[in-house]
Amino acid sequence: MGLFTKDIKTMDDLFIHQLQDIYYAEQQLVKALPKMAEKASDPQLKQGFLTHLDETKGHVQRLEQVFQMHGAKAKAVDCPAIDGIIQEANETAGEVADKTVLDAALINAAQAAEHYEIVRYGSLVAWAKRLGRNDCAAILQKTLDEEKATDGKLTQLAESRINLRAAS
Amino acid sequence: MGLFTKDIKTMDDLFIHQLQDIYYAEQQLVKALPKMAEKASDPQLKQGFLTHLDETKGHVQRLEQVFQMHGAKAKAVDCPAIDGIIQEANETAGEVADKTVLDAALINAAQAAEHYEIVRYGSLVAWAKRLGRNDCAAILQKTLDEEKATDGKLTQLAESRINLRAAS
Asked: What is the CATH superfamily name and number for domain B11-167?
């Protein structure tokens, strides 16, 4: 994609552009999640980040499968949104002195990444269906379901324990 | 907040930091939404952006109210996440040649911003309650509800018309 050219002419082009964008985002999250696990104090939160790291590696592979099925080369394009979300997570985490408060901040940071992905996969599934690619949509839906489940687990963990400890 | 100091020592500090972050984000969206409305072709989408612009101005005022109730000065801190989301929206929109495809891309971009806010307001409501500030939580909940409603309207608009036209 060129900065000074209008390369997205069809819905199919937009679909592929969005695949490239989320492909980059998933790769960045594969790098970020081990660092978040390292910073977490709560054992369940730490394990949650590591479990989601494994899932995220699977999401990268699923995207490669969708690229291939759709006859496009697996390629990443810069995604300033996920870069900003990760940068903000690092900056905030770096300012937190207390371990229990840091856990609350880490959950909030992880949920920002999850919701970014939920939006992007949601659009990808809808666009794939409109393009008559129910096969691609079914694969992308699996990842969307996992992102939503992770977000739900994070909310539950925050509400059941982490926020309580952080506020006490 | 200092870059080299750990200024967030308590949940209360984290709450105020997050208020400052979303205060910046809402201000950036007040600037971004008129541009998105200008780029949109579908009349309902264009009007939706303008309606949400009015709501967003109200969200800024609500945040100022919460700052005041909580005895903190209304102040914005840089929010790299919303900057990245808006930058990505502009970059992608700049690459789209077709008007109907641009509408689909604009909805996707707007939903990324909505979900970012849903996560942040969700945490703010939960944290306010843990801090015994149900009064602040109730105000923040109003904004959270509006962000969720806007996200739902965008999904409905995409699925009912915009994606179909973009893919045809």
From this structure: Ferritin, core subunit, four-helix bundle (1.20.1260.10)
ipTM of the complex: 0.94
Pick the residue of A20, A83, A116, A144 with the most B CBs within 10 A to test the interface with B by mutation.
A116
At A59, list the tokens. 């999401």
pLDDT digits (tens, 9 = 90+) for A123-154: 999 999 999 999 999 999 999 999 999 999 99
Cβ pair B105:A8 closer than 8 A: yes
Residue of B nearest to A167 (CA): B11
Distance from CA of A167 to the nearest CA of B (A): 5
> What are A29-37's contacts with CB under 8 Å, separation 24+?
A29/A56, A29/A82, A29/A86, A29/A113, A30/A56, A30/A57, A30/A60, A32/A86, A32/A89, A32/A113, A36/A89, A36/A106, A36/A109, A36/A110
Q: In chain A, what are the domain boundaries?
A: 11-167
Chain A residues touching residue B81 (CB < 8 angstroms): 81, 84-85, 87-88, 112
